[in-house]
Structure formats: structure tokens, C-alpha cells
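Q: Sequence in, structure out?
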Amino acid sequence: MPQTAQADLELVQSLVAGVKADLARVDKVITTSAPEWPLDRIAKIDLAILRVAVYELINAKVNASVAINEAVELAKEFGSENSSKFVNGVLGSVAASTTPNEEH
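A: Exactly. Output:
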């Protein structure tokens, strides 16, 4: 496997493991930041994108603007017509109210 492919695989595995391990806290942050949207009403792809980005934001894995921009681009590519706006709004709220490693 080429070195960049291996690095990509390791990043994906790390993010999946991190989100799974911290899922309760990640979901609580999403619920707090989008109270009018219960988790079961958020489109599955939007929820997956939000979970990864929120995990990155609350654990300071990447710069907030980078995490938000990447999530918005994923939402544009894979979500519905309004996904990118929804993801951007939720993550903007998370970034404004959350400090890295903050306990929720």
C-alpha cells in the first residue's frame, strides 16, 4: 500500500475509533447546538459528518475553521441541497461555545 494511502487509512481508523469512544459526548454537543433537531431526525450522512467534525473540534484534532470547512465540503458532496448550510450552522455554534477537551 502506498504511504499516503496508509496514512489516509490510519486517519480514518483513528477518527472512527475516536468518535465511537466519545459518541455520548459528541452527540450531546450536537444536541445542545441543534436543539430543534433530534438526532434521529438528522439525515444519516449529515449526522456522520457532524460527528466527525464535532469530535475533531472538542478534541482539538484540527483547527476549528479547517474542521468546519472540510465538513461543509463533505456535506456539499454527499448531503442534500441544504446539508452544507445545516452542517455549517451547527458547527459554527459548536465552535463558538466549545473549548477543546471541554467536559459536557
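The chain has a mean pLDDT of 90.
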